[in-house]
């Protein structure tokens, strides 16, 4: 904001010279007896004095212009530096966004790789066979278990009894429960074998030695159970043949080694059981049925942490860019104002510092209020001061508006 000097403003106000603005406000209130309507006239004198104090001689104007030019050059250099920082920040922002996008794609690839499998057809076939073998083993161990516990019915082989459930039903509910639950023992042993194989896979991933002793114990127990069932069935079939007169020889233990029924039980029971156990492990360990592995979870967690760090960095970059933009606008305004001031000084137009003017007006009104409160009752002084402050605010608003109009 600037104002042109004229002849009326070149002479100093002798009346106000040598006293502070607060003292001038006190004296002005005393002369006008704190009349609020007199405030405007005295404020015009304050403004005139303010302009006189702002006036410089020829050398002072040259020094002020030189100082302003130096500040403008410095601030322009700061602007260029900020512009360079903004460009660098924008590139860093783009790079950080690309890094986040790349990590997001990496997460997608890991999830996809963990769930994908090219063994779809083998998995379906293996699962189907596993299901059928489960049903087969259930029927096999139901029949063979019934024959081992309750004897072989004449006319059948023992390990396959088509009427096992009806025969068990004739003996009571407990026998039915036993025949239904007995195969579960072998299915449970098979599941334990699957669990042991999975633990060995985990040990292999951790580069630790595998442990097969538990699997060996499970297989030995199953083999002994099948051998016992096979022995009882072979003995029962031989007894039926002896009772039917098909053989005259009583059963002896060493006959087990030449009895085909014994070997059939081992082949149709234990061997099929081992095959079923490995197929069960294949099916249950397939990626289609597995949740995310611990390794994949850890990798995804690490990637998520990296993304969070990158996003924090991105937020800091964006915040810095906003601050740089704000600083750039502030510097641009400063440069613009100072360039206007330079033009004003060179053409005899004195810039008006509105903030400084408001400060001097505040000092003046402080002195005015000191006299008013010191010479009137509190209620009367408050009333006079309130009106005076309103008049002062109106005067200051009009003065600033007039300055804005003059600079346009």
TrEMBL record:
Keyword Transmembrane helix assigned: yes
Domain of life assignment: Bacteria
Record has Lipoprotein as a keyword: no
Keyword field: Coiled coil, Membrane, Transmembrane, Transmembrane helix
Coiled coil: 51-106, 293-341
Membrane-spanning parts: 121-141, 172-192, 212-231, 260-280
Name of the molecule in the record: Beta-carotene 15,15'-monooxygenase
């Amino acid at each position: 904001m600037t104002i042109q000097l004229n002849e009326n403003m070149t002479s100093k106000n002798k009346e106000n010279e040598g006293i502070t603005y607060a003292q001038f406000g006190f004296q002005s209130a005393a002369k006008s007896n704190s009349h609020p309507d007199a405030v405007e006239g005295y404020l015009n004198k304050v403004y005139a004095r303010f302009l006189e104090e702002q006036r410089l001689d020829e050398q002072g104007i040259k020094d002020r212009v030189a100082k302003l030019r130096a500040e403008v050059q410095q601030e322009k250099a700061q602007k260029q530096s900020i512009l360079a920082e903004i460009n660098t920040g924008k590139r860093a922002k783009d790079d950080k966004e690309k890094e986040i996008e790349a990590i997001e794609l990496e997460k997608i690839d890991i999830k996809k790789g963990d769930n994908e499998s090219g063994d779809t057809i083998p998995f379906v076939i293996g699962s189907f066979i596993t299901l059928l073998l489960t049903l087969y083993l259930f029927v096999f161990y139901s029949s063979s278990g019934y024959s081992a516990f309750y004897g072989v019915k004449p006319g059948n082989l023992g390990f396959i009894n088509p009427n096992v459930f009806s025969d068990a039903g004739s003996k009571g509910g407990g026998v039915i429960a036993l025949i239904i639950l007995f195969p579960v023992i072998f299915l449970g042993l098979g599941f334990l074998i699957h669990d042991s194989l999975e633990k060995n896979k985990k040990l292999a991933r951790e580069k630790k030695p595998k442990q097969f002793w538990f699997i060996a114990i499970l297989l030995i127990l199953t083999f002994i159970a099948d051998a016992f069932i096979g022995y009882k069935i072979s003995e029962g079939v031989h007894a039926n043949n002896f009772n039917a007169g098909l053989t005259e020889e009583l059963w002896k233990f060493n006959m087990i080694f030449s009895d085909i029924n014994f070997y059939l039980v081992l082949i149709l029971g234990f061997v099929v059981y081992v095959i079923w156990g490995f197929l069960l492990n294949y099916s249950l360990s397939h990626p289609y049925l597995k949740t995310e592995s611990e390794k994949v979870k850890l990798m995804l967690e690490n990637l998520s942490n990296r993304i969070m760090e990158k996003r924090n960095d991105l937020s800091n970059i964006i915040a810095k860019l906003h601050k740089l933009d704000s600083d750039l606008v502030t510097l641009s305004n400063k440069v613009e104002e100072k360039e206007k001031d330079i033009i004003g000084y060179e053409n005899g137009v004195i810039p008006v510092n509105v903030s400084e003017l408001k400060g001097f007006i505040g000092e003046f009104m402080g002195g005015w209020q000191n006299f008013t409160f010191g010479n009137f009752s509190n209620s009367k002084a408050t009333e006079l001061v309130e009106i005076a402050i309103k008049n002062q605010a109106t005067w200051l608003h009009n003065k600033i508006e007039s300055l804005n109009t003059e600079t346009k």
